[in-house]
Amino acid sequence: MSLQGEFTSALFDRSYTRLPEIFSSPSPASRFTIYRNNVFSSMLDALADSYPVVAQLVGEAFFNAMALTFVQAHPPRSRSLVDYGEDFAAFIETFTPAAGLPYLADVARLERLCVRAYHACDSQAVSLELLAELMAQPEELAELRLGLHPSLSILPSDYAVCSLWEAHQPGGDITKVDPCLPERALVLRCGLEVELLALDTGTCAFIQALQAGLPLGRAAHLEGHASSSFDLGQCLALLISKNVITQLLTEEKARP
Amino acid sequence: MNSKNTLGLSLSTAALALALGSALSLSVIPAAQAADDMEKCFGVAMKGKNDCAAGAGTSCAGTSKMDHQADAWKLVPKGTCEKTASTTSPTGFGQMAAFKAKS
What we know:
By secondary structure, chain A is mainly α. Chain A has helices at 3-12, 28-50, 52-58, 60-73, 88-94, 104-119, 128-134, 161-167, 201-211, 216-226, 232-241, 251-254, and strands at residues 145-148, 153-157, 183-190, 193-199, 245-249.
């Protein structure tokens, strides 16, 4: 085994007794324990930084125990600490002690989407003037495809993920939240600010259809069946005001 | 002119145009406090409430350890930073750049 591999095994396997040879006296075992402790503690801190609402929902003691179990089985794979814990939500789903909080994994998914949105590429929104020019050829609107901002993502959940998240922001109130009401979260970054919105089923289906690359006409039509309360104008206004529309692909441009 | 532009429009085309028109009319009202109208203000955020939730391994994200920390910032409406009281600032107010807290 390479020195580096041996070092990693020793770090993550507490029963690993043979210490890597780079350690010299005095007391290599206790010094290695200090190093290992620092590695684990920095990874626990990383998870707590990336999943602050999950941490608040379960409390510090539970969170630390759950995070430690995760860290032991998931050495970091990315050089960037921001990426650490990408699969924390999937882990929470299988973590039996958290089974009583069925919404916890989705809250973790939401928090990961917020971090991703924060670090997503910049992309300039299409100007209002350009959008207004589309009105000159309304017969082309149905075939128009919209490119959406790279920070945008949607999380449909069986639980009230948005309300739970908001209740744990400053001034939030958890007493009014029923965690078992399904919610659809929209996450995006507008300027430097990551924003979270709860969507109705119609708006959610429409944006998902746009994400899948469907042209405007078909996306709006699909959606018409899904929900009667859907307001296409309001939905487009939302996308425009949040600088989400970054590309207009007409029929010719959509073809390679 | 294409005859489809006038009476031949299908209902869905008309509906799409109407929706886009209403979206555009809603959008001319600028969103309150666009990012351009904000400024970074140092020394005014309360403990743990500094801006930018950037995740692990970053040096911002609600990580300030004390009230009015001199090197932690918060986005505030443009023009208000240097009028906001700061207990750590030598000027007594927020500043546009990180500063050394008075002792």
